Amino acid sequence: MNSIYLEMEGVLDQLEAALLEQRPLSLVRVGDGENIVMSQETVWPTEQVLQERWAIKANLGQKGLSLPNPQLRDEVAASLQRADIVGILPRGDSTINAPDYLKRPLTDMVFAHFGISPPLTCHACVNRELAQNPRFWQMLAGKRVLLVTREIEALRATLEREPYHLNLVNALPFDSYDQMQDTLEWIQTNQDTFDVALFSCGVNAVILAERTAALAGKVAIDFGKANNIILKGRAN
Predict the structure, then answer these.
(1) pTM for the full model?
(2) Which of 8, 41, 80, 110 is least enclosed by beta carbons within 10 angstroms?
(3) Residues 202, 126: contact at Cβ < 8 Å?
(4) How far out from the chain centre does Cα 217 lie?
(5) Interatomic CA distance for residues 87 and 123, integer angstroms
(6) Residue pLDDT, tens place only, 135-192
């Protein structure tokens, strides 16, 4: 990968410039879930994928998708090929709680398979840092924010209060991949109602954020487990 790696301030600079210039920007992230989804019948046989604990949880309805799903695999890969900033795990990283072979080694394999080479990369856990960074929240002050997540009520109430004071113009419930098409249609139809979109919906957020930037011309952020930090003060 010949990407330029951005530290936190660099990511914030990119987001801020896009918001100021009112141009599209997508920030997405790759962790063990995205790796597993993209590995289906590309670098691993389906049987191997389905044995992973993450895949078992997904098929119990805990990840907003079920496997096998080659369409989802191809959509995630396509969005990663087009996204502006892609969060990836550094080699040997211990931030996320997953076996090492599901982290950067698997990212490298699936990126090679699909020919994914993002222009800009950052740490995959950038969302956790954003959630705790005052500059990020200051940047969103006065912006019209669209929130897309499963836990709408609790998150909405918190984000509208101190210290966040977000202007949440809309909050869309998103539970599973089945809602992808309807959600993207709504976003495209209502693109004039918001400036920035935050997505906390697992692997689906990669597609949602990249497509929202492309279809609606907005800043769109895969916010991941940042909602847990905001609600509980921790990522898990």
Answers:
(1) 0.97
(2) 41
(3) no
(4) 17
(5) 5
(6) 999 999 999 999 999 888 888 999 999 889 999 999 999 999 999 999 999 999 999 9
